[in-house]
Design brief:
Elements (H helix, E strand, L loop, with lengths): L1 H11 L5 H8 L1 H8 L2 H7 L5 H24 L12 H4 L2 H12 L11 H16 L4 H13 L1 H13 L18 H13 L5 H71 L1
Helix pairs in contact: 2-12, 3-12, 5-7, 5-8, 5-12, 8-12, 9-11, 9-12
Family: Belongs to the heme oxygenase family.
Catalytic activity: heme b + 3 reduced [NADPH--hemoprotein reductase] + 3 O2 = biliverdin IXalpha + CO + Fe(2+) + 3 oxidized [NADPH--hemoprotein reductase] + 3 H2O + H(+)
Protein name: Heme oxygenase
């Protein structure tokens, strides 16, 4: 039923611009992505350091796969019009943020859920088999980063008290002076791509898949966050209990020594 609805929407939008078609067929998925537990936490300004660090780990895996595929297909007729590495590339930015939080050996500390691996695998797969589908993923990720991502950046900075932009490189686009104007240019370039009817249908289906993959990543990340925070709380509780027992034992010993010392002086 859901697939039939999507295909019907595609047929009705045959004569409209590609960017508008993608926006239309992903509307429901977009709403679902915004209403995942992870994104709702962001919207409420309730962002933990654990959430952000794990999100960065997944973004690293995703952008590594996406930008590698885009670089390898930069001359493809569908990819070339929307290939803006100087303006949009995120990989180096994420690496700087990961180093800030995890240290120089951050690569050894990255942890990602299965959904992130599946997403990255899909990007590499279409990079080899259907490079034109990369347009749908690039549109979903980069324009999202330039839109709602900017709001998330400000929320993250405020929630975590990050000063001077440290740990927030992912949200910074120094090569884009006006996000709104750049997004207009990007959509115009997208709409100039010549596609056969089957290619267009495939790309629209891939755009829906891109959102679904992101939703799965958000859901899996939130599960990881919950487990990590529970383990951290358990560790802190255990540490506190040990400290309490140690303090209690130390007090008893000290009290015992004091009584013994007092008794000695009393009998003397």
């Amino acid at each position: 039923m859901e697939t039939d609805k999507k295909m019907q929407t595609q047929v009705e939008l045959t004569d409209s611009d590609l960017s508008e078609q993608i926006k239309a067929v992903t509307k429901d998925s977009h709403v679902r992505a915004e209403n995942t537990e992870l994104m709702l936490a962001y919207q409420r300004g309730n962002v933990s350091l654990t959430q952000y660090k794990l999100l960065l780990c997944s973004l690293y895996e995703i952008y590594q796969a996406l930008e590698e595929a885009l670089d390898n297909n930069s001359n493809h007729p569908s990819v070339a019009p929307i290939y803006f590495p100087l303006e949009l590339a995120r990989l180096e930015s994420v690496e700087r943020d990961l180093e800030h939080f995890y240290g120089q050996d951050w690569r050894e500390k990255i942890v990602v859920p299965a959904a992130t691996k599946i997403y990255a695998h899909r990007l590499r797969q279409i990079g080899k088999d259907n490079p034109e589908y990369l347009v749908a993923h690039a549109y979903t990720r980069y324009l999202g980063d330039l839109s709602g991502g900017q709001v998330l950046g400000r929320i993250t900075q405020k929630s975590l008290g990050l000063k001077g932009g440290e740990g927030l490189s992912f949200f910074s686009f120094p090569g884009v002076s006006s996000p709104n104007l750049f997004k207009q240019l990007y959509r115009s370039r997208m709409n100039s791509i010549e596609l056969e009817e089957e290619e267009r249908k495939g790309m629209l289906e891939e755009a829906v898949r891109a959102f679904e993959l992101n939703i799965q990543v958000f859901d899996d990340l939130q599960k990881m966050v919950s487990v990590t925070e529970r383990e951290s709380e358990l560790m802190h509780t255990t540490t506190r209990n040990r400290c309490t027992r140690h303090t209690s034992t130390h007090s008893k010993l000290a009290d015992g020594k004091l009584r013994a010392h007092t008794d000695t002086h009393t009998h003397a």
